[in-house]
Design brief:
alpha/beta, Thymidylate Synthase, Chain A, 8-stranded mixed beta sheet, 7 helices
Length: 294
């Protein structure tokens, strides 16, 4: 381990839009993060860059909403959004078949703690809880409540598994800003790949924030806007084994292009085409899973 005399640094960055705040957070940990070994290092790779990070997106739905340097295509981003918000792949939770042990949607909308995650057939002794419905109900009745939260962690089982949730908790509250009611949301993470995961995470979670705000608006009969989004990670890191990839992709793009040229608006034709392609891919997937595919 490198000599990090100041310990794990703690950073705060802010931006108006998703790509602005994410880019600032990634550059901050790259330039000033501590050098720390991880459980996933490859032989000969340098330590990761690591920090405790909070970044704030002041206007989550302001344009541009997409950064061109996030790893993965627009199709993958749209499918991930649907996984988190609508649970399109909750049926892939089948560890007995070598598949997933959890999804964020499953933990947030159908939380049912168990002691064994080796099989989806293990039943919880507790009735499942739709935590997002609870949040919506609570804030519809008491907008200023500090109790509107949803958790993912299962202390009964997650510490024993190789693949446990990075997201730990979501917290919501409604506040009035200049006469406008806004739903603010915090997300809390134990560990986070700053470069390869964080942008897709915040893109999907702010869409969940929007969904919750719309449901509360309907329940209360008054408009509740999407407010600021705050993202808190205990370990926000860039892995040493992909430093070269990071430098030739993310850093190269940031240095070579203006902010406008390294981001996309959500209504850009390229983005809209990618979204449509994602839905076509999902339709084909459903046909194959239902036995209707080739």
């Amino acid at each position: 381990m490198a000599d990090n005399k100041g310990g794990i640094p703690v950073f705060l960055v802010e931006g108006d839009t998703l790509p602005e705040a994410w880019e600032k957070s990634v550059l901050k940990v790259w330039e000033e993060g501590a050098s720390i070994r991880t459980e996933y290092d490859k032989e000969g790779s340098p330590p990761s860059k690591d920090a405790t990070m909070t970044f704030v997106v002041r206007k989550p739905f302001s344009e541009p909403r997409l950064h061109r340097a996030f790893p993965g295509g627009i199709e993958e981003l749209e499918k991930y959004r649907l996984e988190v918000v609508e649970g399109i792949h909750d049926h892939w939770i089948k560890p007995e078949e070598g598949k997933w042990t959890y999804t964020y949607h499953g933990r947030l909308f159908n939380y049912a703690p168990v002691e064994d995650l080796s099989s989806s057939k293990v039943k919880s002794p507790f009735q499942s809880v739709n935590q997002i419905e609870y949040v919506i109900k609570k804030l519809s009745e008491t907008p200023h409540s500090r109790r509107a939260q949803a958790t993912t962690w299962m202390p009964s089982a997650d510490p024993k598994t190789y693949d446990c949730p990075c997201l730990q908790r979501l917290w919501f509250r409604i506040i009035e800003v200049d006469g406008v009611k806004e739903l603010e949301m915090n997300s809390h993470w134990r560990s986070r790949d700053a470069y390869k995961a964080a942008f897709m995470n915040i893109y999907a979670l702010t869409d969940l924030q929007r969904t919750v705000a719309e449901r509360i608006s309907k329940n209360r009969g008054e408009k509740v806007e999407v407010g600021r989004y705050a993202d808190i990670s205990d370990s926000y890191h860039i892995y040493g084994f992909y430093f070269e990839e990071f430098e030739r992709s993310f850093l190269k793009l940031v240095k070579a292009r203006s902010f406008e040229k390294r981001t996309w608006r959500s209504d850009d034709r390229t983005v809209q085409y990618g979204i449509k392609q994602a839905h076509k891919m999902l339709e084909e997937e459903r046909k194959k899973e239902g036995g209707g595919g080739a």
